[in-house]
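Quick start: read one record
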Amino acid sequence: MLESPALNMSPIRRVAVIGAGPSGAAAAEALKQAQAFDVIRVFERRGEVGGAWNFDPAPNVPIADPLVHPSAADPPLQPPAELPATTPKSSTERWITAPVYENLTTNVNVEIMTYTYLHFTDVDKTPLAEDHDPMFPSAARVLNYIQTLHNRHSDYLVLNTTLERAVKQDNEWHLTLRQADNETDYWYEESFDALVVATGIYSVPRIPDIPGLHDYNRSFPGRALHSKYFRSVEGFKAQSVLVVGNGITALDLIRDLMPVVSKLTVAHRSPSWMYPTSLVGVPGISARSQLQRLDPENGDCFFADGGPPFRPDAIIFATGYHVSFPFLSPPYASHNHGSSLAADWVPGTYLHTFHQQDPTLSFVGLVQNSVSFRIFEYQAAIVAAFLAGRLKLPVLEEMQRWEKERLEEVNNNSALFHYNKYPNSVEFLNQLHALLQQTTGPGLQLHSWQDEWTPKYIAGIEERKRRVENLKTLHITGTVL
């Protein structure tokens, strides 16, 4: 039997957290409450906290060329030969823009999308009836909540600073950091005993490699964009629009666009994983199969169903995001270094949280589901407990067995590896809670899934289904995936 990687681990005193969004806030709080660390730093590449919930009203929209692998879309930057150093500001796209658009809301009730140690309603006293949506809080309110969470440990924050390289050597993580101002980049190094990646998964857009797309973008500049850069329906009024995708974001965009566009066509490879028949028979929507090619001469779009082409005024790719950690080198993350593996999951993790070979590297926020905030909190708690020496992980072969069984559960579809739909999400939360029950000492005090949460969660699901069924008449916008 292979021994646990933790058996040879040195005491952890200095911890770096990468990302100051919701998962970064949970990680910082859990580490703080563990009362076991001398240094905790939270590095954030933006100038403010909030992560994917920040609103950039007028982002620079890149050309929507195919982005099929982060090794090309999000390559690592080469640091200067000697550090510290000051260089001209890098012009490389780092995908810093957040995907928030006007009237964005959550997709779950505030009773579910909250942290235990500071409840959403204890921060935001705005009655739901006064918000633009009676059930789901707006992105602005979520951002305010995340900002309040980070204010509890603002002394940990290092803003405008991007992690460009993380190398493990001599039991330390050596981080190469780039601090940006208006004209220059300041490069420097810091060392830590552990690294917690809480960057989220909504940075690098995934745009399929559709024949003709590259030339189409040159013939019709600005006509195609990824949903990350959608901000409002204003620019789409009275236009014919093609939405590519059938996930939650696509459904939200469809619901937003229907009242204002002249024609709406939706192209997707398979039914929505959340609402399998939601587009069948919906008036006002032309549902087509997979987008097969584009004609850069006249702008026609052709589909796998063999039906007539469609010539839209605009194309929106609601096709998701890559999992990308350009600062990590093999064996810690191979996606950004030419791996043939799909770029939609992180291989070699245990419980979507710990790197199997070296659990001083952990991830908070990889799991995608509708109870994400609570899952982040429980992930952060077990990470803090482990790094504090209060939680033992199983031997390596058992962690590898977990990954193998998880892949089998999703029929080896790596795109679904980190998805945990209800009720699996509840089972996973309780699995994390069971680990916490094995620990003693200071730390976040969390409960197993509470019975009173279930009807609130179900009510949110049913309400969103109802809104999908009423796409023709309901005009309330949607959610970040």
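Residues 112 and 432 are 17 Å apart (CA to CA).
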